[in-house]
Amino acid sequence: MAQVYSAYEAKAKFSEVLRRVQAGQRVIIAYRGKEVAEISPLVTDRSSLEGSLERLEDLGVVTRAPKTPRALRTLAKRPGALKRFLESRD
To answer: How far apart are CA 17 and CA 3, in angstroms?
Structure first.
Protein backbone atom coordinates (compact mmCIF):
# COMPACT_ATOMS: atom_id res chain seq x y z
CA MET A 1 0.00 0.00 0.00
CA ALA A 2 1.28 3.45 -0.84
CA GLN A 3 1.82 6.11 1.79
CA VAL A 4 -0.15 9.33 1.18
CA TYR A 5 1.33 12.75 2.00
CA SER A 6 -0.23 16.17 1.56
CA ALA A 7 1.81 18.52 -0.63
CA TYR A 8 2.81 20.54 2.44
CA GLU A 9 3.80 17.43 4.37
CA ALA A 10 5.75 15.98 1.40
CA LYS A 11 7.70 19.23 1.10
CA ALA A 12 8.49 19.28 4.81
CA LYS A 13 9.44 15.58 4.88
CA PHE A 14 11.07 15.25 1.48
CA SER A 15 14.03 13.23 2.82
CA GLU A 16 11.62 10.75 4.41
CA VAL A 17 9.67 10.50 1.14
CA LEU A 18 12.89 9.73 -0.75
CA ARG A 19 13.90 7.09 1.80
CA ARG A 20 10.53 5.36 1.37
CA VAL A 21 10.85 5.40 -2.42
CA GLN A 22 14.42 4.16 -2.23
CA ALA A 23 13.16 1.28 -0.06
CA GLY A 24 10.82 0.30 -2.91
CA GLN A 25 7.59 1.88 -1.68
CA ARG A 26 5.25 4.11 -3.66
CA VAL A 27 4.32 7.53 -2.28
CA ILE A 28 1.18 9.43 -3.24
CA ILE A 29 1.03 13.25 -3.03
CA ALA A 30 -2.34 14.87 -2.37
CA TYR A 31 -3.23 18.50 -2.97
CA ARG A 32 -6.28 19.84 -1.14
CA GLY A 33 -7.37 16.30 -0.33
CA LYS A 34 -7.16 15.02 -3.90
CA GLU A 35 -4.43 12.57 -4.93
CA VAL A 36 -2.50 14.22 -7.77
CA ALA A 37 0.92 12.57 -8.05
CA GLU A 38 2.79 9.37 -7.40
CA ILE A 39 6.48 8.92 -6.69
CA SER A 40 7.65 5.37 -7.32
CA PRO A 41 11.03 3.66 -7.57
CA LEU A 42 12.70 3.48 -10.95
CA VAL A 43 12.36 0.12 -12.62
CA THR A 44 15.90 -0.87 -13.51
CA ASP A 45 15.41 -4.51 -14.54
CA ARG A 46 12.59 -4.55 -17.08
CA SER A 47 13.96 -7.54 -18.94
CA SER A 48 13.49 -10.24 -16.33
CA LEU A 49 10.14 -11.90 -15.82
CA GLU A 50 10.70 -12.04 -12.07
CA GLY A 51 11.37 -8.29 -11.95
CA SER A 52 8.21 -7.55 -13.91
CA LEU A 53 6.12 -9.84 -11.70
CA GLU A 54 7.48 -8.21 -8.55
CA ARG A 55 6.64 -4.76 -9.90
CA LEU A 56 3.08 -5.80 -10.84
CA GLU A 57 2.67 -7.45 -7.44
CA ASP A 58 3.81 -4.25 -5.70
CA LEU A 59 1.25 -2.29 -7.71
CA GLY A 60 -1.48 -4.74 -6.70
CA VAL A 61 -2.20 -5.76 -10.29
CA VAL A 62 -1.41 -9.46 -9.78
CA THR A 63 -1.15 -11.84 -6.87
CA ARG A 64 0.95 -14.95 -6.88
CA ALA A 65 -0.58 -18.38 -6.69
CA PRO A 66 0.05 -20.38 -3.52
CA LYS A 67 3.23 -22.47 -3.63
CA THR A 68 1.35 -25.71 -2.95
CA PRO A 69 -1.75 -26.39 -5.02
CA ARG A 70 -4.94 -26.95 -3.09
CA ALA A 71 -6.79 -30.23 -3.43
CA LEU A 72 -9.86 -30.18 -5.66
CA ARG A 73 -13.12 -30.87 -3.92
CA THR A 74 -15.95 -32.93 -5.33
CA LEU A 75 -18.90 -30.89 -6.55
CA ALA A 76 -21.36 -33.75 -7.03
CA LYS A 77 -22.84 -34.97 -3.76
CA ARG A 78 -24.06 -38.28 -5.18
CA PRO A 79 -22.35 -40.59 -7.67
CA GLY A 80 -23.83 -40.60 -11.16
CA ALA A 81 -24.84 -36.94 -11.19
CA LEU A 82 -23.52 -36.43 -14.72
CA LYS A 83 -25.38 -39.49 -16.00
CA ARG A 84 -28.65 -38.29 -14.42
CA PHE A 85 -28.13 -34.82 -15.86
CA LEU A 86 -27.53 -36.15 -19.35
CA GLU A 87 -30.53 -38.46 -19.12
CA SER A 88 -32.74 -35.55 -18.06
CA ARG A 89 -31.80 -33.67 -21.22
CA ASP A 90 -33.17 -36.38 -23.54
So the answer is: 9
